[in-house]
Amino acid sequence: MSDPLKHECAVALLRLRKNPEYYARKYGGSSFGFSKMSLLLEKQHNRGQDGAGIASLKLDPEPGFPAYHLEKSAAPEDPLAELLERCAGRNCFDGELLLGHLRYATYGRHEISACHPFVHDSSCLERTLLLAGNFNLTDTGELFRRFRETGHHPASRADGYLITQTIAHYLEQDSNLHTGAHDWAKVLRQALNGLDGAFTLCGINGAGDAFAIRDSHAIRPGYFYFNDEVFAAASERPAIQAAFNCSTAEVMEIPAGKAVVVRKSGEVEVLDCLDPAPRRSCVFERIYFSRPNDAGIHRERKNLGKALVPELLEAVKEDYDNTFFSYIPNSAQVSFHGMLEELMKRAFSAGKTVRFGQIAIKDAKFRTFIADAAARKELWMHVYDITYGLVHPGTDTLVVLDDSIVRGNTMRNAILPIFSRLSPRKIIVASSAPVIRYPDCYGIDMACAGDLVAFQAAVSLLKKKGMEEVLIHAAEHARKDLASGKNRNRMKEVYDAVSEEELLKEIALLLTPAGLQAELEIVYQSMASLRKCCPEYTGDWYFTGEYPTPGGFRTVNRALVNYMEQNNTRAY
Asked: Please, which residues bridge with residue 204 across strands?
């Protein structure tokens, strides 16, 4: 991903299933739980860089002292490191239940109040609730209305606050409140059933129960593991494997629409909560978001790279001698390995060799702090270094693999300008993902139509052809559907008015920086290949416009209307 795309949060839940003395005897000291929570968060650091939080709760806390302790950080440099340093060595973070979160500030809010876990506080432990999650809702306004109708005065419109308070409301209504045997299935069904959006939520009840629940379409990822010592849940499977040295098979997915509950007694159970719905797990998790050290993701990304080889060889006319293959770091690296394996097989059969290497090198420590815009743009180009002497000037075609192209800003303003210094005859940018045509509303900061280079290209083509009426009619249809509640994607009308070949050429034109001497071509993954490589992950609305919930269709239509009204605000 060449663009600095803001995306997923990460959540981690840990329950120690034996008494604290057990861990002190076996592992030494009293920091076993905190150390494991720290590792669960560190191994998911890629999913959250703007805020972090940890809560610790002890079973049967002594009256007169807090039942839980909570710390958050929104430090500008590294909030997780700052948070862990602040919490380390403090006895109050040695509780049997720990809840952690990493936040990526999709909405640009970096203050402490936006960091998880959220809390519904009460002097009654059964009514106390701490909640954290990886989620995004399209109907926060509806949730706000429902919360008011239950007789409450919401102090915020933030979805995290509203979800926490809504669950707490139904928790307080539970007839089993004081028996120590909450009907979590009923509580979570009442609070969450019917929400429009995507979520993996983890919660801790003040009396010692814990739960992890996933939306009914399984859009957001969630995994859990338990043995006789611990229960753990997290957004990514390898984080759990790293923390507890367990196999892939031992870490299970949180089932769609179900809650995995750990009772105060330590008993683990899986409960039906939400109405069944078609599985539409996010395929972008496999392409980009999650780390590739997950066995399944690693295999799928390699296959995505392999699937591009036939079209790439056609594009270079199988001229191995005058083609150099590389990738844009770092998330495209595994796909490149798959591409390279397939290229080498074919080259060996043809009696050829494959020329490859790392052309672009990302400077992870580079910071652009210059206030002047022009100077800052010049520095921005140097976020990537290049390797000289590998590409033959004037004769070589340089093929570079990226995982996806969303906005194209970094590609146009940084990557391609530095590649042009190598003077290749032609540059081919290959995307392991298909063309991203439509906004997202389930977690990624991608809710403005005008930000997508594919939509820009489609609009540009319509204007060149004098077909602006297509945009006008599509927006009018979108307004009517928004008013009537019909679930139809009206942005499709814009793309249907141009051919695929025209669209790809126009995208390449828009991505071409001023002064680029080399010919530029863009090669995208096909939808057929994507489905073959990631068969279980059908959440492909970014590419197809087929959203899993009504809120998705509202988002795409609102994005189109906003664009036509020159209102560049997010569509949800």
From this structure: 130, 210
Q: State both tokens at 42.
A: 């560190």
Q: What is the pLDDT of residues 548-566, one digit of tens each?
A: 999 999 999 999 999 999 8
Q: How far is it, in rounded angstroms, from Cα 3 to Cα 405?
A: 8
In a domain, residue 556? The reply is no
Count of alpha carbons within 13 angstroms of residue 82, beta-carbon side: 15
- In this predicted structure, the answer to whether residue 465 has a pLDDT above a threshold of 70 is yes
Task: Give me the CATH number covering residue 51.
Answer: 3.60.20.10
Task: Give alpha helix (H) positions in 276-323.
Answer: 284, 295-307, 309-315
For residue 263, give the nearest of 50, 113, 59, 3 by alpha carbon.
Answer: 59
| Residue 53 maps to a domain | yes
Residues 164 and 262 grouped into a single domain: yes
Q: For residue 245, give its domain range.
A: 10-279
Let me know whether 260 and 315 are in one domain: no
408 and 301 in one domain?
yes
What residue type is assigned to position 555 of the chain?
A: T
* 557 half-sphere exposure, CB direction, 13 A CA radius: 25
- Amino acid identity of residue 99, one-letter, is L
Region label for 242, one of left (φ > 0), alpha (ψ between -120 and 50) or beta (otherwise): alpha
| Nearest to 549, CA basis, from 476, 451, 449, 440 | 440
Mean pLDDT over all residues of the chain? 91
Global pTM value = 0.92
- The number of domains in the chain is 2
Q: Is residue 270 located within the same domain as residue 134? A: yes
